[in-house]
Amino acid sequence: MQLMKNPNQKSTTGCLLAALSASFLLQSTAVAVSQGLAQPALDGSNRGRAFIQKHVQPSDAAVQFELGRKSEFGIDTRANPRAAAHWYRLAADQGLARAEYSLGRLYSTGDGVLQDQAEAVRYFRRAAAKGYGLAQHRLARAYELGQGRPRDLVEAHRWYTLAANENGFASSRLNLKKLEARMNEAQLAQVRVPSPKFPAIVNASKGE
User: Fold this and answer.
1) CA–CA separation, 61 and 161 (whole Å)
2) Domain boundary at 51, 85, 115, which?
3) Half-sphere exposure of 6 (CA within 13 A, CB side)
4) Do residues 173 and 164 make contact, with C-beta atoms less than 8 angstroms apart?
5) 138/78 same-domain check
6) What pLDDT band is residue 194 in, cutting at 50, 70 and 90?
7) Contact 59, 9 (CB under 8 A)
8) Which spans in the chain are helix H?
9) What distance lies between CA 138 and its chain's CA centroid?
């Protein structure tokens, strides 16, 4: 008796193979990064540039970010902060908010790059303006402590408020209460006046 073929079998198998292929490529590329085979921005070698051109297209910001994450935390490969910074930068240059935030973290701690608080704030701001909550929280913290920017409790309050209200960050809400206890009446009066730039940031984060 001839078995009836499942019309969805071919497409399901194709999708499975594509997923497995993408996973294998991601893992093998991350290993290559750790072993120094895929760092054209770091060593300038023709071999490195050829590797990137073959395996990671310029538009693959999400893949580049994932390679950065794997390189930073040693997932499926040895931890390599320099390679992580390289991949995060490629994705950040395409405007990927989580890559901008991650690169900012590396600049803040000096892992894989020269420590530079001002550069960290620059990347936090780029991601925060896109509505990325973690970046909004870190930017508020930078303004609160005067890291990479002059201390500005009013600006810190506004970014904490965005992170708390628009992204539901409990830690931002907690920091906000502590911050208000340190602010004087003039500063509190300032935060009660809507800033013209923040509605635009909120709307942009919602895609309006």
Assistant:
1) 29
2) 115
3) 6
4) yes
5) no
6) confident
7) no
8) 9-34, 40-43, 46-55, 61-73, 81-92, 97-109, 117-128, 133-145, 153-167, 170-182, 185-192, 197-205
9) 12
- 8 Å CB contact between 144 and 175: yes
- pTM across the whole model: 0.71
* Same structural domain, 138 and 204: yes
Q: Do 110 and 82 sit in the same domain of this protein?
A: yes
124: amino acid identity, one letter: F
Residue 121 or 36, more confident: 121
d(Cα 142, Cα 155) in Å, to the nearest integer? Answer: 10
**Residue 186 belongs to what domain range?**
131-208
In a domain, 159, yes or no: yes
**Residue 151 forms part of a structural domain:** yes
Give dist(CA 98, CA 86) in Å, integer.
14
Domain count for the chain, please give it: 2
Q: How far is CA 169 from CA 17, 112, 165, in A?
A: 39, 28, 8
| DSSP secondary structure letter of residue 5 | P
Q: Whole-angstrom Cα distance, residue 106 to residue 67?
A: 15
pLDDT in tens, 37-59: 344 333 344 544 455 555 555 56
* Dist. CA 201–CA 208, nearest whole Å: 10
Q: Do both 139 and 84 map to the same domain?
A: no
3-state SS class at 205? helix
